[in-house]
Amino acid sequence: MNLTSEELVRLNIEAKDWEDAIRQSADALLQNGKIKASYIDAIIKTVKETGPYIVITKHVALPHARSEAGALESAIGIATLKEPVVFGNKENDPVKYLFCLSAKDSESHINALAELTGLLDRKDFYEFLDHAKDASEVIKYIKNL
Amino acid sequence: MEFKGLVACRAGVGSSLMLKIKVNQVISEHKLPIKIEHGSLDSVAGFNGQFIITLSDVAKELEGKKLPQKIIGINNIMNKEEILTKLNVFLEEVK
Lengths: 145, 95
Description:
- By secondary structure, chain A is of the alpha/beta class.
- Chain A is 39% helix and 18% strand.
- In chain A, strand 2 and strand 3 form a beta hairpin.
- The longest helix of chain A is centred in the first third of the chain and has 14 residues.
- Chain A is globular.
- Helix content of chain B is 40%, strand content 25%.
- Chain B has one domain: Response regulator (Rossmann fold), CATH 3.40.50.
- Classes of the chains: A alpha/beta, B alpha/beta.
- At the A-B interface, helix 3 of A face helix 1 and helix 2 of B.
């Protein structure tokens, strides 16, 4: 997970709906120069047009869009919501964990994404996120795996 | 006979990559006669394999396009049981 860092972690976000949750989770990437604002709009637009395909497993969303929509550097953000929100994905709602992905090209993020896939397989990862106090703790946990 | 499947998603950089990892795990764990390629929805047109596997809402969209391939929709990417069951249904059908 060399594509994530303390600055890209946001814990216990208070989001009023799915759109707000995406905007706030993606904001960490925006603030750190990983994406342009247009990238966030592209994510929201796609979800509105075609449904919540970014909700990939129980309680987890992977907000992302095409590179051309405004991905500047490959990065993965980590965000948790204080209260889960409904995305309209019957199988996997409500969403509590968001991993906003920016992929600059089709290669540079593959290893990190494989590692994230491994993390999402671990029950203890979610439990850890539920209790994590700050961003440095989250990064330390991931690095020590 | 070995079958060829395409893992596709809208952008081709996120969900489909994750799904590809999980599908390949299932294929190797159960030694299924399937080879997987990966791409965005743009690559669907030039694909010459037997099935396309993607997230369920994308699958719904593809089903409307009357493609020659069988479309498999997955609800939960991390659920290997679901992936295995649906791949087996496909393998039964083409037998």
